[in-house]
Structures are given as structure tokens and as C-alpha cells.
Automatic annotation (TrEMBL):
Every NAD(P)-binding domain range: 10-176
Organism: Streptomyces sanglieri
Protein name (Swiss-Prot/TrEMBL): NAD(P)H-binding protein
Listed PANTHER family: PRESTALK A DIFFERENTIATION PROTEIN A, PTHR43162
InterPro entries registered for this protein in UniProt: Ergot_Alk_Oxidoreductase (IPR051604), NAD(P)-bd_dom (IPR016040), NAD(P)-bd_dom_sf (IPR036291)
Coiled coil: none
Length: 281
């Protein structure tokens, strides 16, 4: 297996980048799938798929949200000799009513999971909850810096999971045979409300960060006023909806099953992020 590079699509993202780093630490050859990579990999340009897949036997698929590209990509990967795929899916892909009918990410994950399960290759599916790093690196960082997190999430709790844990499960599935055919639901060890998370960030940073629950409509209007296209604002609001409907507090044992250790707790992750200057403007 180590004679062939492992392709990581989305290889510069929160999970993909960590997967690349963890594989490299193990001495496993890696091919970073990104538009800036060499060779270039662009989800929306199938011409780039073949060069990225050349000589690859195993691949980690971080799908392109909003497009149904996982199915044709897996088909092409199989034609070019790939033997194992690990798919990064998402919480709720098999839960009725979790995603709205208009959810672009929901359609991507549902179609991608079906494609992987029926592709005839060795496969593993990884379904993480919301990333804990969204507060320090992603969607919510600017709001944390501004001191006010305004979301249509009500009082719902979330079992935030460490992106390093997600990457570690992906690495295990790519390099060990015992994970073939498994679907791993990944969560942190406890569920916290957004108010509890902002309180933890305040404690870790020494500055006040508040969570302000607002309505779906208010959230969309605020995003549109900031220049977001209405469709994208609605999609983002829909993604927050399951928190408000108390569907994101689910605790799973996926990290323990895959890695033989507990998942890391979000409180420690937030302390670590503060200590490393994640919220320095």
C-alpha cells in the first residue's frame, strides 16, 4: 500500500489538511488534491481527476458540497484502479427530516453515501457532527472575534467533534483493513449549547463572547445585507436548523470504536485554540 500515494481530495481543508499531516507523520505517501496542488485537482473540472488518480489505490473523498460529483468521481476512480475509498459524509445523512429538501449539502451526502456503498470497492463512511474548529478556524470565527454569535439555533445542543479526531479516523480507515464496510458516526463526548460554548470561549480568552439566538428569517436578512446571495443565505440557515430542532446533540461511539480511545472534549480544544492565538485579530 505504501508504494502508492493516497489521494486526499479537499487536501487543504480543515479535515483534509489534518489527514494529510497525520498520514505524512506515519511515512505514508500522500497526494494533496486541491486546485493549487501538483497535479491540480478541481472537483468541477473532471479533466483533472485522471492525473490526480494516477497510481492511486486508496482515496479520501471530501465531497464538493452542492454538487452531485461523488458518484462520477468514484466510478472514474474504480476504472483507474483505485481499490478503497473513505468518504467524509455528514451528521444526519440517514435521519429523516434532518436536512431540508432544499439542502445542497444534504443531497451531496445522501447521493455520495449511496454511490460509495454500491461502487464495488472497499469503503468506509465517516459522519462527523459539527466541527469544534468552526469557532477557531471556520464559519463562526469572525463572530467570535466580534464578540457576538448570532445564529438561528435556539437553545439546541451540539456534540461538537475535534477535526483532528475526524482525520485520525480517516487515516485509520485508509491504512487499516478492519474498517472496511464501517460507517462511523463521530461526535465529541458531550453536547453543549452555543451559549455554553461561548461561555467557555469567554473563560479561555478573558474576553466576552455572547450567543444571541435569532430567527431563521432574521439570520437570512442579516446575511443578505452583508452581500450574501439569498439562496446561499437560506442554505446556511437551513444547515443551522437541526440544532434548533434538537437534532444535533446525538452522542456516538465512533471515535472510540475506530481508534480505541475517547473523543477529545470541546472545552480542552477551545483552551488550546486560545493558547495558540486562534482569536487574535
Amino acid at each position: 500500500m505504501t508504494d502508492h500515494p493516497i489521494l486526499i481530495t479537499g487536501g487543504t481543508g480543515k479535515v483534509g489538511g489534518r489527514t494529510v499531516s497525520q498520514l505524512a507523520l506515519k511515512g505514508v505517501p500522500v497526494r494533496v488534491g486541491s486546485r493549487s496542488g501538483d497535479p491540480c485537482f478541481d472537483w468541477r473540472d473532471p479533466v483533472t481527476w485522471d492525473t490526480a488518480l494516477e497510481g492511486v489505490k486508496r482515496a479520501f473523498i471530501v465531497p464538493y458540497d452542492g454538487e452531485l460529483l461523488t458518484r462520477p468521481f468514484v466510478r472514474r476512480a474504480k476504472e483507474l484502479g483505485v481499490e478503497r475509498v473513505v468518504l467524509l459524509s455528514g451528521r444526519g445523512a440517514d435521519v429523516p427530516g434532518y436536512a431540508s429538501e432544499n439542502s445542497t449539502a444534504g443531497r451531496t451526502h445522501i447521493d455520495g453515501e449511496e454511490a460509495v456503498r454500491n461502487c464495488g470497492l472497499e469503503w468506509t463512511i465517516v459522519r462527523p457532527a459539527w466541527f469544534a474548529q468552526n469557532f477557531s478556524e471556520g464559519f463562526f470565527r469572525d463572530a467570535v472575534l466580534a464578540g457576538e454569535l448570532r445564529l438561528p439555533a435556539g437553545g439546541g445542543a451540539v456534540s461538537f467533534v475535534d477535526a483532528e479526531d475526524i482525520a485520525a479516523v480517516a487515516v485509520a480507515a485508509l491504512t487499516e483493513d478492519k474498517h472496511v464496510g464501517e460507517t462511523y458516526e463521530l461526535s465529541g463526548p458531550r453536547a453543549l449549547t452555543l451559549r455554553e460554548v461561548t461561555d467557555l470561549i469567554s473563560q479561555a480568552t478573558g474576553r466576552t463572547v455572547r450567543y444571541v439566538p435569532i430567527s431563521h428569517e432574521e439570520f437570512v436578512a442579516e446575511l443578505v445585507s452583508e452581500g450574501w446571495p439569498t439562496a446561499e443565505a437560506e442554505d446556511y440557515a437551513d444547515a443551522i436548523g437541526p440544532i434548533r430542532r434538537n437534532m444535533d446533540g446525538y452522542l456516538s461511539d465512533g471515535v472510540q470504536r475506530a481508534l480505541g480511545r475517547p473523543a477529545r472534549d470541546v472545552a480542552q480544544l477551545l483552551k488550546d485554540a486560545a493558547a495558540t492565538g486562534a482569536w487574535q485579530a
